[in-house]
Amino acid sequence: MTATGTSSAPNATAQAITATGLRKSYGDKVVLDGIDLAVPEGTIFSLLGPNGAGKTTAVKILSTLISADAGGIRVGGHDLAADPQAIRAAIGVTGQFSAVDGLITGEENMLLMADLHHLSKSEGRRSAAELLERFDLVDAAKKPASTYSGGMKRRLDLAMTLVGNPRIIFLDEPTTGLDPRSRHNMWQIIRELVSDGVTVFLTTQYLEEADELADRIAVLNDGRIAAEGSAEELKRLIPGGHVRLRFTDPAAYQSATSALREAARDDEALSLQIPSDGTQRELRSILDWLDTAGIEADELTVHTPDLNDVFFALTGGANVPNQPKKAVR
């Protein structure tokens, strides 16, 4: 994974969000079928799944917007059944659709949120000013939000979510519809939040986004968690990973093909493809074998399935090997 270094290692016992046996149905339609979730403090957790898989339903339940049919939930150290108001005070939620009021200015949107959080006028103005500056919206603060670009509206939406300084934030598809530059800007904002100790629960339809941001990813399919782990752990569930050895010396290539008969050959490119799960141990084994055989490859590259492969395998009915225990909660 490319970008989880921004978050510090969480305390293994400090969970920002836990859910056990979470169930929700609408009539005969089972949306969540007894799912378990655990999100350590100060991390980014991403919930993936096809449209209609129940991602938004999970967010709405965990953020107290709707009730579950069954299951235990703790958010920010508070039990949902016993103290939902304490949870509401600890969280912020940015939904799929912007909560920005286009008829008023960006600053007025921020002050409205400050009023809803019962901040004093001076505290509300200070919070609004700080957040507008943080999200690079000062120049547009006095303009109607209807004049903002899509990226600006999403930044304002997230800034409004941060009024009251929540330590847990639910982001439900926060970058949908944004251009690549605006999406990358939003990613940087999310990373900065987590570096400050905020916990982010993210749903997204962009697999690249989960790969870039998330410390852990859960794939939701048919109401259940199909798999969970880091991006790298999930990629190793899918067959097709390999190590590619490329040679410039035909003699070295022939020696390697003779010694490694199970490798797939590409005589034109002078390359061999060795099945591999991409682990350090397996890579070291291949390197040790090359040294022992006295064979020197000019190039060694490791190829692993990406999250697209994982997503389609887990949600499309393909056979997926059992998860290793370390990748299962």
Entry keywords:
11 helices, six-stranded mixed beta sheet, disordered N terminus, elongated, alpha/beta, Rossmann fold, 329 residues, 14 strands, 2 domains
In short:
By secondary structure, the protein is of the alpha/beta class. The protein has helices at residues 55-62, 84-90, 106-116, 121-134, 150-161, 180-195, 207-213, 231-235, 250-259, 280-293, 307-315; strands at 15-26, 29-40, 44-48, 70-75, 78-79, 91-94, 168-172, 199-203, 216-221, 224-229, 242-246, 264-266, 271-275, 299-303. The protein has two domains: 4-100 and 148-228, 3-Layer(aba) Sandwich (Rossmann fold), CATH 3.40.50; 242-303, no CATH class.
What does this structure look like?
The chain is α/β, with parallel strands linked by helices and 329 residues long. The chain folds into two domains: 178 residues, Rossmann fold (3-Layer(aba) Sandwich); 62 residues, no CATH class. The strands form three sheets. Strands 6-7-8-3-9-10 form a six-stranded mixed beta sheet, with helices on both faces. Strand 9 and strand 10 form a beta hairpin. Helix 3 packs across helix 4 and helix 3 runs parallel beside helix 5.
Topology:
Blueprint: E1 15-26, E2 29-40, E3 44-48, H1 55-62, E4 70-75, E5 78-79, H2 84-90, E6 91-94, H3 106-116, H4 121-134, H5 150-161, E7 168-172, H6 180-195, E8 199-203, H7 207-213, E9 216-221, E10 224-229, H8 231-235, E11 242-246, H9 250-259, E12 264-266, E13 271-275, H10 280-293, E14 299-303, H11 307-315
Helix pairs in contact: 3-4, 3-5
Pfam family, one: ABC_tran
GO molecular function: ABC-type xenobiotic transporter activity; ATP binding; ATP hydrolysis activity
Protein name: ABC-type xenobiotic transporter
